[in-house]
Amino acid sequence: MIEVLEQYRPHQVEMRRRLMYCCLTIALTSCIAYLFKEQIASWCMQPLYMAYPDLGKLVYTNLMEAFISYLKLSLLTGLIVSFPFILYQAWLFIAPGLRKHEQQLVRRITLWGSLLFAGGALFAFFIVLPTLLAYFMSYAGEDLTPMIKIGLYLTFIARTILAFALAFEIPFLMVMATRTGLLARDHFQKNRTYFYIAILVLAFLLAAGDPVAALLISLPLFVLYETGILAGRIFANRKTHQDPANR
Question: How many C-beta atoms lie closer than 10 Å to residue 61's C-beta?
């Protein structure tokens, strides 16, 4: 038993070292983001002012609300900026135990994972958020005056951006799950109904219970899911053609 523990101890030390690097990077980027918190917050408020130009200033009703909101925003910014570095550290941890062709595969995973994460965040900010905010602010009028709290607004922005950044990984993860043999090729197609229900529940939670907003959020997620199924078929067929045993 002691010999087994000694065998795995170097891996534990290496894992702690990589985790420490990731935590330090997130902390450093978050601190830098906090120095520019007002500029970042102003940038995040642009979709809201575009959706409702007559809106005045955002408000806060608790002494700690503005500080905590800026802190959360800085932490999220640090996490997003550090995401490629986190993937790179994960690759460095598993690379020594991989063969050459497996290392090349992991490099592609790191690259595409980072690009899809950034693409999802940009899609949420420039496409999804303006549409959702325009819908939510359409209720404002002569009888209703919006008074948006900065804490709730930044939380909504952060939650939406992070959700779509992770959602854009769906097609990529689906392809990798089928290509590596972790799941059957037709798994996602056969269980489409259950995944659609899960997407609707997630969209309903992100939209704070509004059915129309939940539908607006779920539509691009449905497209991503179907894209994953289509990409899985394409890569599965390509692998079949390249495999001499199947010729």
Answer: 9
